[in-house]
Protein backbone atom coordinates (compact mmCIF):
# COMPACT_ATOMS: atom_id res chain seq x y z
CA UNK A 1 0.00 0.00 0.00
CA UNK A 2 1.49 3.36 -1.08
CA UNK A 3 1.12 6.74 0.56
CA UNK A 4 -0.32 9.59 -1.52
CA UNK A 5 3.09 11.29 -1.61
CA UNK A 6 4.75 8.12 -2.89
CA UNK A 7 2.22 7.78 -5.69
CA UNK A 8 2.67 11.39 -6.77
CA UNK A 9 6.43 10.83 -6.75
CA UNK A 10 6.06 7.71 -8.94
CA UNK A 11 3.85 9.65 -11.35
CA UNK A 12 6.45 12.42 -11.54
CA UNK A 13 9.10 9.86 -12.47
CA UNK A 14 7.04 7.85 -14.96
CA UNK A 15 5.37 10.69 -16.82
CA UNK A 16 7.61 12.59 -19.23
CA UNK A 17 6.38 15.34 -21.57
CA UNK A 18 4.94 13.93 -24.80
CA UNK A 19 7.00 14.43 -27.99
CA UNK A 20 6.50 17.91 -29.49
CA UNK A 21 4.31 18.47 -32.54
CA UNK A 22 3.64 21.46 -34.81
CA UNK A 23 0.08 22.71 -34.89
CA UNK A 24 -1.70 25.67 -36.48
CA UNK A 25 -1.78 28.56 -34.06
CA UNK A 26 -5.56 28.33 -33.63
CA UNK A 27 -5.17 24.83 -32.09
CA UNK A 28 -2.39 25.74 -29.69
CA UNK A 29 -4.29 27.38 -26.81
CA UNK A 30 -3.94 25.35 -23.62
CA UNK A 31 -0.72 23.67 -24.79
CA UNK A 32 2.80 24.22 -23.47
CA UNK A 33 5.21 25.84 -25.91
CA UNK A 34 8.05 23.50 -26.95
CA UNK A 35 10.41 26.02 -28.61
CA UNK A 36 11.08 29.68 -27.82
CA UNK A 37 9.39 32.22 -30.10
CA UNK A 38 11.55 35.10 -31.37
CA UNK A 39 10.40 38.23 -33.18
CA UNK A 40 11.00 38.06 -36.95
CA UNK A 41 10.44 41.84 -37.22
CA UNK A 42 10.47 44.92 -35.06
CA UNK A 43 7.16 45.69 -33.38
CA UNK A 44 5.79 48.05 -34.40
CA UNK A 45 7.54 47.58 -37.77
CA UNK A 46 7.54 51.36 -38.46
CA UNK A 47 7.24 54.57 -36.44
CA UNK A 48 3.53 54.42 -35.73
CA UNK A 49 0.83 57.00 -35.17
CA UNK A 50 -1.19 56.34 -32.00
CA UNK A 51 -4.02 58.86 -32.52
CA UNK A 52 -6.29 60.31 -35.16
CA UNK A 53 -5.17 63.81 -36.16
CA UNK A 54 -2.26 65.43 -38.03
CA UNK A 55 1.38 64.46 -38.32
CA UNK A 56 3.34 67.61 -37.52
CA UNK A 57 6.70 69.06 -36.58
CA UNK A 58 6.23 69.83 -32.88
CA UNK A 59 8.18 73.11 -33.24
CA UNK A 60 5.52 74.41 -35.65
CA UNK A 61 2.62 73.94 -33.27
CA UNK A 62 2.45 77.08 -31.14
CA UNK A 63 -1.12 77.63 -30.02
CA UNK A 64 -3.06 79.45 -32.70
CA UNK A 65 -0.61 78.52 -35.49
CA UNK A 66 -2.07 77.50 -38.82
CA UNK A 67 -0.71 74.48 -40.70
CA UNK A 68 -1.38 73.53 -44.30
CA UNK A 69 -2.55 69.96 -44.95
CA UNK A 70 -0.34 68.56 -47.72
CA UNK A 71 -1.64 64.99 -47.83
CA UNK A 72 -3.00 62.10 -45.87
CA UNK A 73 -1.72 58.82 -44.48
CA UNK A 74 -4.20 56.08 -43.53
CA UNK A 75 -3.40 52.86 -41.64
CA UNK A 76 -2.71 50.25 -44.30
CA UNK A 77 -3.29 52.89 -47.00
CA UNK A 78 -1.02 54.15 -49.79
CA UNK A 79 2.23 55.58 -48.41
CA UNK A 80 2.49 59.37 -48.27
CA UNK A 81 5.78 59.88 -50.09
CA UNK A 82 6.35 63.56 -49.36
CA UNK A 83 7.92 65.18 -46.30
CA UNK A 84 6.30 67.27 -43.61
CA UNK A 85 8.10 70.61 -43.84
CA UNK A 86 7.81 73.85 -41.90
CA UNK A 87 4.21 75.03 -41.56
CA UNK A 88 2.67 71.88 -43.06
CA UNK A 89 1.05 68.70 -41.77
CA UNK A 90 -0.38 65.40 -43.00
CA UNK A 91 -3.82 64.13 -41.98
CA UNK A 92 -3.26 60.78 -40.33
CA UNK A 93 -5.11 58.11 -38.39
CA UNK A 94 -4.30 55.59 -35.69
CA UNK A 95 -1.97 52.81 -36.77
CA UNK A 96 -0.55 54.63 -39.81
CA UNK A 97 3.20 55.17 -40.35
CA UNK A 98 4.38 58.63 -39.29
CA UNK A 99 5.47 60.42 -42.51
CA UNK A 100 9.00 61.71 -43.01
CA UNK A 101 9.68 65.06 -41.38
CA UNK A 102 6.95 64.74 -38.73
CA UNK A 103 7.87 64.10 -35.10
CA UNK A 104 4.54 64.38 -33.28
CA UNK A 105 0.80 63.96 -33.70
CA UNK A 106 -1.55 66.85 -33.27
CA UNK A 107 -4.68 65.16 -31.98
CA UNK A 108 -7.84 66.01 -33.96
CA UNK A 109 -9.59 67.08 -30.72
CA UNK A 110 -6.91 69.80 -30.32
CA UNK A 111 -7.54 71.41 -33.70
CA UNK A 112 -10.00 73.28 -35.83
CA UNK A 113 -10.01 72.54 -39.51
CA UNK A 114 -11.13 74.84 -42.30
CA UNK A 115 -10.44 73.82 -45.86
CA UNK A 116 -6.80 72.87 -46.33
CA UNK A 117 -5.73 74.49 -43.04
CA UNK A 118 -5.83 73.41 -39.40
CA UNK A 119 -5.47 75.70 -36.44
CA UNK A 120 -3.54 74.40 -33.42
CA UNK A 121 -5.53 74.64 -30.16
CA UNK A 122 -3.12 72.63 -27.99
CA UNK A 123 0.52 72.05 -28.83
CA UNK A 124 1.98 68.48 -28.65
CA UNK A 125 5.51 67.88 -27.34
CA UNK A 126 8.01 66.25 -29.70
CA UNK A 127 7.34 62.52 -29.95
CA UNK A 128 3.83 62.83 -28.59
CA UNK A 129 1.24 60.46 -30.16
CA UNK A 130 3.91 58.38 -31.89
CA UNK A 131 5.52 55.07 -31.12
CA UNK A 132 9.03 54.30 -32.36
CA UNK A 133 9.71 51.30 -34.57
CA UNK A 134 10.69 48.34 -32.34
CA UNK A 135 9.51 50.15 -29.19
CA UNK A 136 7.50 47.13 -27.99
CA UNK A 137 9.74 44.30 -29.19
CA UNK A 138 12.88 44.23 -31.31
CA UNK A 139 13.62 41.81 -34.13
CA UNK A 140 15.35 38.67 -32.79
CA UNK A 141 14.09 39.21 -29.26
CA UNK A 142 12.68 36.13 -27.46
CA UNK A 143 9.09 36.98 -26.66
CA UNK A 144 7.90 33.54 -25.45
CA UNK A 145 10.14 31.09 -23.60
CA UNK A 146 9.86 27.33 -24.17
CA UNK A 147 7.68 25.89 -21.41
CA UNK A 148 5.20 28.79 -21.48
CA UNK A 149 1.56 27.79 -21.20
CA UNK A 150 -0.17 29.24 -24.27
CA UNK A 151 -3.23 31.30 -23.38
CA UNK A 152 -5.00 33.85 -25.58
CA UNK A 153 -2.38 36.58 -25.07
CA UNK A 154 0.57 34.27 -25.76
CA UNK A 155 -1.23 33.24 -28.97
CA UNK A 156 -1.43 36.95 -29.89
CA UNK A 157 2.31 37.31 -29.26
CA UNK A 158 3.09 34.28 -31.46
CA UNK A 159 0.91 35.71 -34.24
CA UNK A 160 2.68 39.08 -33.97
CA UNK A 161 6.03 37.27 -34.22
CA UNK A 162 4.97 35.69 -37.50
CA UNK A 163 4.39 32.16 -36.19
CA UNK A 164 1.54 30.40 -38.03
CA UNK A 165 2.53 26.86 -37.04
CA UNK A 166 3.79 26.49 -33.51
CA UNK A 167 5.83 23.78 -31.74
CA UNK A 168 3.94 22.53 -28.70
CA UNK A 169 3.76 19.60 -26.35
CA UNK A 170 0.34 18.15 -27.18
CA UNK A 171 -2.21 17.72 -24.43
CA UNK A 172 -2.57 14.01 -23.69
CA UNK A 173 -5.55 12.10 -25.04
CA UNK A 174 -7.61 10.37 -22.38
CA UNK A 175 -10.01 7.47 -22.96
CA UNK A 176 -12.65 6.41 -20.43
CA UNK A 177 -13.85 2.85 -19.85
CA UNK A 178 -16.47 2.03 -17.21
CA UNK A 179 -16.84 -1.61 -16.27
CA UNK A 180 -19.59 -3.23 -14.22
CA UNK A 181 -22.59 -5.49 -14.90
CA UNK A 182 -24.70 -3.24 -12.68
CA UNK A 183 -24.27 -0.11 -14.80
CA UNK A 184 -26.87 1.34 -17.16
CA UNK A 185 -26.59 4.57 -19.20
CA UNK A 186 -28.48 7.67 -18.01
CA UNK A 187 -31.33 7.22 -20.49
CA UNK A 188 -32.25 3.82 -19.00
CA UNK A 189 -34.28 3.22 -15.84
CA UNK A 190 -32.23 0.85 -13.66
CA UNK A 191 -33.91 -2.53 -13.01
CA UNK A 192 -33.34 -4.44 -9.76
CA UNK A 193 -29.73 -4.17 -8.60
CA UNK A 194 -28.71 -1.84 -11.43
CA UNK A 195 -27.47 1.73 -11.06
CA UNK A 196 -26.81 4.49 -13.54
CA UNK A 197 -23.25 5.01 -14.73
CA UNK A 198 -22.49 8.44 -13.30
CA UNK A 199 -18.73 7.97 -12.99
CA UNK A 200 -18.12 7.50 -16.74
CA UNK A 201 -19.69 10.82 -17.83
CA UNK A 202 -17.94 12.59 -14.94
CA UNK A 203 -14.52 11.25 -15.93
CA UNK A 204 -15.17 12.15 -19.56
CA UNK A 205 -15.96 15.71 -18.45
CA UNK A 206 -12.79 15.81 -16.32
CA UNK A 207 -10.76 14.49 -19.27
CA UNK A 208 -12.20 17.23 -21.46
CA UNK A 209 -11.38 19.87 -18.88
CA UNK A 210 -7.82 18.81 -18.04
CA UNK A 211 -6.73 17.15 -21.31
CA UNK A 212 -8.34 15.90 -24.52
CA UNK A 213 -11.13 13.33 -24.41
CA UNK A 214 -10.36 10.52 -26.87
CA UNK A 215 -13.51 9.13 -28.46
CA UNK A 216 -16.78 8.34 -26.71
CA UNK A 217 -16.64 6.97 -23.18
CA UNK A 218 -17.03 3.16 -23.31
CA UNK A 219 -18.58 0.47 -21.14
CA UNK A 220 -17.75 -3.21 -20.65
CA UNK A 221 -19.47 -5.87 -18.55
CA UNK A 222 -17.62 -7.75 -15.80
CA UNK A 223 -16.07 -10.19 -18.26
CA UNK A 224 -12.37 -10.39 -19.22
CA UNK A 225 -12.81 -10.70 -23.01
CA UNK A 226 -14.80 -7.49 -23.62
CA UNK A 227 -12.68 -5.66 -21.03
CA UNK A 228 -9.55 -6.66 -22.97
CA UNK A 229 -10.92 -5.66 -26.37
CA UNK A 230 -12.26 -2.32 -25.09
CA UNK A 231 -8.88 -1.62 -23.47
CA UNK A 232 -7.00 -2.37 -26.69
CA UNK A 233 -9.31 -0.07 -28.62
CA UNK A 234 -8.82 2.70 -26.05
CA UNK A 235 -5.02 2.30 -25.98
CA UNK A 236 -4.78 2.74 -29.75
CA UNK A 237 -6.03 6.31 -29.50
CA UNK A 238 -5.04 7.62 -26.09
CA UNK A 239 -1.94 8.05 -23.95
CA UNK A 240 -3.98 7.63 -20.79
CA UNK A 241 -6.85 5.21 -20.25
CA UNK A 242 -9.09 5.60 -17.22
CA UNK A 243 -10.83 2.40 -16.16
CA UNK A 244 -13.34 2.11 -13.35
CA UNK A 245 -14.76 -0.90 -11.55
CA UNK A 246 -13.45 -4.44 -11.53
CA UNK A 247 -10.13 -3.43 -9.97
CA UNK A 248 -10.15 -4.92 -6.50
CA UNK A 249 -9.82 -8.46 -5.27
CA UNK A 250 -13.48 -9.50 -5.74
CA UNK A 251 -14.32 -12.61 -7.75
CA UNK A 252 -15.75 -10.37 -10.51
CA UNK A 253 -12.74 -8.01 -10.58
CA UNK A 254 -10.99 -8.83 -13.84
CA UNK A 255 -8.95 -5.73 -14.70
CA UNK A 256 -5.74 -6.67 -12.79
CA UNK A 257 -5.54 -10.09 -14.51
CA UNK A 258 -6.28 -8.58 -17.96
CA UNK A 259 -3.55 -5.98 -17.47
CA UNK A 260 -1.03 -8.62 -16.51
CA UNK A 261 -1.94 -10.70 -19.53
CA UNK A 262 -1.55 -7.65 -21.80
CA UNK A 263 1.98 -7.11 -20.51
CA UNK A 264 1.38 -4.04 -18.37
CA UNK A 265 3.63 -3.31 -15.41
CA UNK A 266 1.62 -2.37 -12.36
CA UNK A 267 3.34 0.25 -10.17
CA UNK A 268 0.55 1.04 -7.74
CA UNK A 269 -2.45 -1.00 -6.67
CA UNK A 270 -3.74 0.55 -3.48
CA UNK A 271 -3.16 3.91 -1.85
CA UNK A 272 -3.70 5.19 1.67
CA UNK A 273 -6.31 7.69 0.58
CA UNK A 274 -9.91 8.21 1.61
CA UNK A 275 -12.11 8.05 -0.30
CA UNK A 276 -10.24 6.26 -3.00
CA UNK A 277 -9.20 2.65 -2.63
CA UNK A 278 -8.43 1.03 -5.09
CA UNK A 279 -6.18 3.08 -7.36
CA UNK A 280 -4.14 1.35 -10.06
CA UNK A 281 -1.23 2.82 -12.01
CA UNK A 282 0.14 0.58 -14.76
CA UNK A 283 2.26 1.34 -17.82
CA UNK A 284 3.31 -0.31 -21.03
CA UNK A 285 5.71 0.67 -23.82
CA UNK A 286 4.66 -0.34 -27.33
CA UNK A 287 4.10 0.82 -30.91
CA UNK A 288 0.44 1.46 -30.34
CA UNK A 289 -1.43 1.66 -33.63
CA UNK A 290 1.83 1.33 -35.63
CA UNK A 291 3.28 4.70 -34.53
CA UNK A 292 6.57 5.28 -32.71
CA UNK A 293 7.13 3.58 -29.36
CA UNK A 294 5.18 5.34 -26.68
CA UNK A 295 4.36 4.81 -23.05
CA UNK A 296 0.72 4.23 -22.25
CA UNK A 297 -0.76 4.84 -18.82
CA UNK A 298 -3.55 2.72 -17.50
CA UNK A 299 -5.22 4.32 -14.51
CA UNK A 300 -7.69 2.27 -12.53
CA UNK A 301 -10.06 4.42 -10.51
CA UNK A 302 -12.63 3.41 -7.92
CA UNK A 303 -16.15 2.84 -9.21
CA UNK A 304 -17.69 5.11 -6.64
CA UNK A 305 -17.86 8.53 -8.27
CA UNK A 306 -16.65 10.59 -5.30
CA UNK A 307 -13.65 8.27 -4.86
CA UNK A 308 -12.98 8.40 -8.60
CA UNK A 309 -13.24 12.19 -8.53
CA UNK A 310 -10.80 12.54 -5.62
CA UNK A 311 -8.28 10.18 -7.24
CA UNK A 312 -8.58 12.04 -10.52
CA UNK A 313 -7.75 15.37 -8.87
CA UNK A 314 -5.00 13.93 -6.68
CA UNK A 315 -3.24 11.67 -9.18
CA UNK A 316 -4.55 12.03 -12.74
CA UNK A 317 -4.30 15.82 -12.89
CA UNK A 318 -0.56 15.74 -12.03
CA UNK A 319 -0.06 12.93 -14.56
CA UNK A 320 -1.83 14.89 -17.31
CA UNK A 321 0.05 18.08 -16.41
CA UNK A 322 3.42 16.29 -16.69
CA UNK A 323 2.56 14.61 -19.99
CA UNK A 324 1.49 18.01 -21.33
CA UNK A 325 4.90 19.46 -20.42
CA UNK A 326 3.68 21.49 -17.45
CA UNK A 327 4.40 21.50 -13.74
CA UNK A 328 2.49 19.25 -11.34
CA UNK A 329 -0.34 21.25 -9.74
CA UNK A 330 0.30 22.33 -6.14
CA UNK A 331 -2.22 22.35 -3.32
CA UNK A 332 -3.44 25.76 -2.13
CA UNK A 333 -4.04 27.02 1.41
CA UNK A 334 -7.13 28.41 3.04
CA UNK A 335 -8.58 29.10 6.45
CA UNK A 336 -11.06 26.48 7.63
CA UNK A 337 -14.15 27.99 9.31
CA UNK A 338 -15.00 24.82 11.26
CA UNK A 339 -13.21 22.55 13.73
CA UNK A 340 -11.80 19.35 12.22
CA UNK A 341 -11.77 15.92 13.82
CA UNK A 342 -8.54 13.93 14.08
CA UNK A 343 -7.67 11.86 11.02
CA UNK A 344 -6.56 8.21 10.79
CA UNK A 345 -3.81 6.68 8.68
CA UNK A 346 -5.31 7.43 5.26
CA UNK A 347 -5.07 10.92 3.76
CA UNK A 348 -8.65 12.19 3.74
CA UNK A 349 -10.19 14.51 1.13
CA UNK A 350 -13.30 16.36 2.19
CA UNK A 351 -15.56 18.32 -0.16
CA UNK A 352 -15.85 21.97 0.89
CA UNK A 353 -17.27 25.26 -0.19
CA UNK A 354 -14.77 27.92 -1.21
CA UNK A 355 -15.68 31.56 -1.70
CA UNK A 356 -13.12 33.69 -3.51
CA UNK A 357 -14.89 36.89 -2.47
CA UNK A 358 -14.01 36.29 1.20
CA UNK A 359 -10.63 37.47 2.50
CA UNK A 360 -8.67 35.67 3.82
CA UNK A 361 -9.62 32.76 1.58
CA UNK A 362 -11.90 30.51 3.64
CA UNK A 363 -13.22 26.97 3.17
CA UNK A 364 -16.31 25.45 4.77
CA UNK A 365 -16.30 21.65 4.95
CA UNK A 366 -19.52 20.06 3.67
CA UNK A 367 -21.29 17.31 5.55
CA UNK A 368 -20.22 14.38 3.52
CA UNK A 369 -22.16 11.12 3.36
CA UNK A 370 -19.61 8.80 1.80
CA UNK A 371 -17.95 7.90 -1.44
CA UNK A 372 -21.14 7.64 -3.52
CA UNK A 373 -22.44 11.06 -2.42
CA UNK A 374 -22.04 13.09 -5.61
CA UNK A 375 -24.97 15.26 -4.52
CA UNK A 376 -22.93 16.89 -1.75
CA UNK A 377 -19.82 16.91 -3.93
CA UNK A 378 -21.81 18.89 -6.51
CA UNK A 379 -21.92 21.81 -4.03
CA UNK A 380 -18.16 21.82 -3.46
CA UNK A 381 -15.56 24.14 -4.98
CA UNK A 382 -12.60 22.56 -3.17
CA UNK A 383 -11.33 19.46 -1.44
CA UNK A 384 -9.75 19.88 1.99
CA UNK A 385 -6.70 17.65 2.48
CA UNK A 386 -6.61 16.07 5.94
CA UNK A 387 -3.07 14.72 6.41
CA UNK A 388 -2.43 11.27 7.82
CA UNK A 389 -2.85 11.28 11.63
CA UNK A 390 -3.71 14.98 11.73
CA UNK A 391 -4.77 15.92 15.28
CA UNK A 392 -8.09 17.47 16.18
CA UNK A 393 -8.03 21.06 14.97
CA UNK A 394 -10.01 24.14 15.94
CA UNK A 395 -11.94 26.44 13.64
CA UNK A 396 -9.61 29.01 12.06
CA UNK A 397 -6.70 26.72 11.24
CA UNK A 398 -5.06 26.86 7.84
CA UNK A 399 -5.61 23.75 5.71
CA UNK A 400 -4.32 22.50 2.36
CA UNK A 401 -6.91 22.51 -0.40
CA UNK A 402 -7.32 21.37 -3.97
CA UNK A 403 -9.46 23.77 -5.96
CA UNK A 404 -11.97 22.11 -8.25
P1 LIG B 1 -16.19 -1.20 -7.71
O1 LIG B 1 -15.15 -0.17 -7.86
O2 LIG B 1 -16.53 -1.93 -8.96
O3 LIG B 1 -15.87 -2.16 -6.58
O4 LIG B 1 -17.53 -0.45 -7.29
C1 LIG B 1 -17.67 0.26 -6.08
C2 LIG B 1 -19.05 0.88 -6.01
O5 LIG B 1 -19.18 1.87 -7.02
C3 LIG B 1 -20.19 -0.11 -6.27
O6 LIG B 1 -21.27 0.27 -5.45
C4 LIG B 1 -20.51 0.13 -7.72
O7 LIG B 1 -21.83 -0.23 -8.03
C5 LIG B 1 -20.30 1.61 -7.87
N1 LIG B 1 -19.92 1.94 -9.23
C6 LIG B 1 -19.03 1.26 -9.99
N2 LIG B 1 -18.89 1.85 -11.20
C7 LIG B 1 -19.72 2.91 -11.18
C8 LIG B 1 -20.04 3.91 -12.15
N3 LIG B 1 -19.44 3.93 -13.36
N4 LIG B 1 -20.94 4.86 -11.82
C9 LIG B 1 -21.51 4.85 -10.60
N5 LIG B 1 -21.24 3.95 -9.65
C10 LIG B 1 -20.37 2.98 -9.93
MG1 LIG C 1 -17.57 -3.67 -9.86
Written account of the structure:
This protein has 404 residues and is an alpha/beta fold. It folds into four domains: 168 residues, MoaB/Mog-like domain (Molybdenum Cofactor Biosythetic Enzyme, Chain A, 3-Layer(aba) Sandwich); 57 residues, Molybdopterin biosynthesis moea protein, domain 2 (Alpha-Beta Complex), CATH 3.90.105; 84 residues, Molybdopterin biosynthesis moeA protein, domain 3 (Beta Complex); 72 residues, Beta-clip, CATH 2.40.340.10. Helix content is 19%, strand content 30%. The protein is built from seven helices and 28 strands. The strands form seven sheets. Strands 14, 17, 18, 19, 20, 22 and 23 form a seven-stranded mixed beta sheet that branches. A six-stranded mixed beta sheet has the order 8-5-7-6-10-9, with no helix packed on it. A hairpin with a 7-residue loop joins strand 22 and strand 23. The protein is elongated and about 95 Å long. It starts with a helix and ends with a strand. It binds adenosine monophosphate and magnesium ion (MG).
Amino acid sequence: MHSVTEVIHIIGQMALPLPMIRVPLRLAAGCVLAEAVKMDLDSPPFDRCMLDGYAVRAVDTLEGAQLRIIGRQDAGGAAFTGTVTRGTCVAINTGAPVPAGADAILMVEHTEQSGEFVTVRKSPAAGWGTQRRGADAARGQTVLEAGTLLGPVQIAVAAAAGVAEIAVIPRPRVAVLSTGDELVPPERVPAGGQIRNSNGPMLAALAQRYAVLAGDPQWAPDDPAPIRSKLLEALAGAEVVLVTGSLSMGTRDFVPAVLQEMGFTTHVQTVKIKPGKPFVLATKEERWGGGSAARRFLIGLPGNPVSGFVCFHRFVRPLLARLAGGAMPETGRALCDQGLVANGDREFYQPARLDHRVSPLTVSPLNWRGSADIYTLAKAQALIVHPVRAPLREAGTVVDIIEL
